[in-house]
């Protein structure tokens, strides 16, 4: 099948476009409420700046998690698995702990934030490419081994960082804790444009590959019979997953350390497949990003402005995601 035919076949139908328009409109309303609801009469410019920075960070993270989860589930052919299983969060904690243990608090603070951000993304992507390249050379039968290796590496990274934490002094431990706790409030103005650019490149590449992803979702044998080069396509897709997850993790911290990221991606993809009801990634990818953004913005606004941070959004995500996970297992909807 030619590239032109693939892209024509992947054009979203009119109903799908209406769904995306509705989700985008809902996100616009959520963003406006986030920026202007309860705006005090004091220094409005300063408050708007802080809110816009936090909103931009939430949008980038939501886009990265939503799109990467759809891509990962397409490759793994399983709607229960999420990219957090590959140990990126544990690697991030190990990187932060290693930097603080090696250079001390003063040396860690002296590293430029943009350089540190790019180094973290590069290291996490390099590890993913090394892992995927070595395990996916013989086709899809190595997917299970790749996932199992990711789980084992995650345990190893957590053990190594735990050992290093026990060796450093209490002051350095406090810095490690502060740098590895997920927080949208610590969004850095210098990092957001870089993260948004990298995330945009990853999403644009995923949308460009959407027709081939539709073929990839049919399974290895069907994809190969239709002329798709399966192994390079799987490697490219997992590389995009690594980029998107790395950017999200480096921006706000290891979202999967406390559990909500795995369930957040699961909730997003479950809602995406339920609303879209199509196999076309030209619809699934933007819908997942919009749904994730709506959940984050509305949820964060509810817990900050209505409940006054009496609880955490991650608690609700873990609870709802756990119930949805059990629902998928009990209903036998795991492919």
Tell me, briefly, the overall form: globular
The CATH topology assignment is ABC transporter involved in vitamin B12 uptake, BtuC
The CATH homology group name: ABC transporter involved in vitamin B12 uptake, BtuC
Structural class given helices, strands, pairing?
mainly alpha
CATH top level is Mainly Alpha
* Largest sheet report: none
H/E series: HHHHHHHHHHHHHH
The total domain count is 1
Average pLDDT, to the nearest integer?
A: 78
Number of strands: 0
Share of residues in helices: over 70%
Concise synopsis of the structure shown:
This protein has 335 residues and is mainly alpha-helical. The chain is built from 14 helices and no strands.
Model description:
This protein has a single domain, classed as Orthogonal Bundle (ABC transporter involved in vitamin B12 uptake, BtuC). The chain has 335 residues and is mostly helical. The protein is 78% helix and 0% strand. The chain has helices spanning 3-9, 14-36, 44-76, 88-110, 113-135, 143-167, 170-179, 191-208, 210-216, 220-225, 230-252, 260-276, 281-306, 313-331. α5 (113-135) runs antiparallel to α11 and α12 packs across α14. The two termini are 26 Å apart.
């Amino acid at each position: 099948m030619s590239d032109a035919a693939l892209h024509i076949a992947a054009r979203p139908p009119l109903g799908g476009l209406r769904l995306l328009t509705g989700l985008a409109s809902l996100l616009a309303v959520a963003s406006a409420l986030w920026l202007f609801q309860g705006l005090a009469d004091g220094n409005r410019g300063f408050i708007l700046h802080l809110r816009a920075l936090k909103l931009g960070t939430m949008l980038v993270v939501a886009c990265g998690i939503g799109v990467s989860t759809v891509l990962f589930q397409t490759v793994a052919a399983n709607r229960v698995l999420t990219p957090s299983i590959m140990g990126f969060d544990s690697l991030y904690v190990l990187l932060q702990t290693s930097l603080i243990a090696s250079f001390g608090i003063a040396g860690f603070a002296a590293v430029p934030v943009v350089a540190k951000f790019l180094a973290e993304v590069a290291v996490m992507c390099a590890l993913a490419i090394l892992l995927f390249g070595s395990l996916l050379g013989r086709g899809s039968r190595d997917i299970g081994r790749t996932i199992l290796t990711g789980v084992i590496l995650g345990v190893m990274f957590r053990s190594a960082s735990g050992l290093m934490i026990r060796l450093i002094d209490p002051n350095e431990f406090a810095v490690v804790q502060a740098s590895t706790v997920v927080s949208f409030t610590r969004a850095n103005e210098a990092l957001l444009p870089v993260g948004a650019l990298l995330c945009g490149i990853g999403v644009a590449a995923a949308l460009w590959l959407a027709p081939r992803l539709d073929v990839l979702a049919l399974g290895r044998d069907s994809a190969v019979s239709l002329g798709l080069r399966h192994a390079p396509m799987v490697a490219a897709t997992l590389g995009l997953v690594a980029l998107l997850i790395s950017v999200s993790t480096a921006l706000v911290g290891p979202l999967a350390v406390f559990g909500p990221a795995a369930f957040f991606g699961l909730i997003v993809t479950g809602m995406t497949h339920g609303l879209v009801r199509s196999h076309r990634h030209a619809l699934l990818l933007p819908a997942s990003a919009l749904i994730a953004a709506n959940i984050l913005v509305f949820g964060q606004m509810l817990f900050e402005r209505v409940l006054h941070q009496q609880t955490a959004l991650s608690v609700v995500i873990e609870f709802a995601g756990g119930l949805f996970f059990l629902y998928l297992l009990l209903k036998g909807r795991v492919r």
